[in-house]
Amino acid sequence: QRQRQTPRWARQIIAHDELESTNDLAKKLLADGAEEGTLVLADTQTRGKGRLGRSWFSEKGTGLYFSLILKPALPREQHPSLTLMAAVATVEALQPFSPHPITLKWPNDILLNQRKLGGILSEQVLAPGDTVSGVVVGIGINVNQTRFPEELAAVATSLYIETREQPERSDIFSFIINYLYKYYQILLEDGASPILSRWRQNSRMLGSSILLRQGAETHTGVAIDLDAAGRLVVRLNSGEVRAFDGGEVTLHPG
Ligand code: BT5
Question: Looking at ligand 1, which residue's alpha carbon is closest to its atom 7?
Answer without folding.
Answer: 140
